[in-house]
Design goal:
CATH architecture of the largest domain: 3-Layer(aba) Sandwich
Strand order of the largest sheet: 2-3-1-4-5
CATH topology of the largest domain: Rossmann fold
Strand content: 15-25%
Number of helices: 9
Structural class: alpha/beta
Number of domains: 2
CATH superfamily of the largest domain: P-loop containing nucleotide triphosphate hydrolases
Largest sheet: 5 strands, parallel
Number of strands: 9
Distance between the termini: 52 Å
Radius of gyration: 25 Å
Order of helices and strands: EHEHEHEHHEHEEHHEHE
Helix content: 25-40%
Length: about 290
């Protein structure tokens, strides 16, 4: 299978950086402002180091001086070498670009001491031939970040859609809340194994301790409610374009109840469209 190479180009302020972040979240190796003359050698050198099926995305625009003079020859060579090359050209209405420059208080790269409008006009003129060669033209004038992300995922295809990385984390309230947590569940209402001598030295990674926690009627009810809640929430987070979700389960010390719940919860997540990571933050403390 040929390696996929996406060229992200277009007008300054039109959404190229947002598109690059989306591609990075979807497993692409993303490079910003690589000198175009270096691209063939770069692709050859990175071919062996990339994961099978991983694509490469390169942001190239007017910051890359001189690329308009030889891009056709370089792109033709890359296609001849078997790369699946697509050009995504980003643009927006002049008024929208002026507003975005005003919000960021940046000068235009083609008009550092002139008006932003002058820079926009020069850039449109210079990039017109490249625009005519584009695989897809994306007008971001009326798109917010979520809509632009969805458009990019549509372009990439169904296999790249709705990838959600879920981090399941156990923790102890004694050591503070996980700062990156999106959803936090307090399981200190469950019977505490700490008060059972033979269970106290164990952790939720060990079957005997985990069986005690999970066999409690109140725990079985809690797990059913938690499963239903996550089954409801996950698709909605995906639709809204969320790439990372941290679900934190906390007990007093972070060794018994929270670890047991996280270990049991691993099996409840859908296999499709979810990358699952598990972290027991405080299991070695106490």
């Amino acid at each position: 299978m040929s390696q996929r190479l996406l060229i992200i180009t277009g007008l300054s302020g039109s959404g190229k950086s947002t598109a690059a972040r989306v591609l990075e979240d979807q497993g692409f190796f993303v490079v910003d402002n690589l000198p175009l003359v270096m691209l063939p050698d770069f692709m050859e050198r990175t071919r062996e180091g990339l994961k099978p099926g991983a694509g490469v995305a390169v942001v190239i625009d007017v910051r890359n001086r001189g690329f308009l003079s030889n891009y056709r020859d370089i792109f033709d060579c890359l296609k001849a070498d078997g790369y699946q090359l697509d050009i995504l050209f980003f643009e927006a209405a002049d008024a929208v670009l002026r507003r975005r420059y005003s919000e960021t208080r940046r000068s235009h790269p083609l008009a550092p001491v002139e008006t932003v409008q002058t820079g926009i006009e020069r850039e449109r003129e210079q990039l017109y031939p490249l625009r005519e060669s584009a695989t897809k033209i994306i007008d971001s004038s009326n798109l917010n970040s979520r809509q632009l992300r969805e458009l990019m995922l549509n372009f990439l295809g169904e296999k790249h859609r709705s990838l959600l990385i879920v981090n399941l984390e156990s923790f102890g309230y004694r050591y503070g809340l996980p700062p990156a947590a999106d959803l936090v569940f307090d399981v200190r209402f469950l019977p505490n194994p700490h008060y059972i001598d033979e269970l106290r030295p164990l952790t939720g990674l060990e079957p005997k301790l985990r069986e005690y926690v999970l066999s409690q009627p109140v725990c079985r009810d809690f797990r059913k409610h938690l499963d239903r809640l996550l089954i409801f929430l996950l698709p909605h987070y995906q639709v809204e374009g969320k790439s990372y979700l941290t679900v934190a389960i906390g007990c007093t010390g972070g060794r018994h109840r929270s670890v047991s719940i996280v270990e049991d919860l691993k099996s409840s997540f859908p296999e499709r469209d979810v990358v699952l990571r598990v972290n027991h933050r405080d299991i070695t403390k106490g």
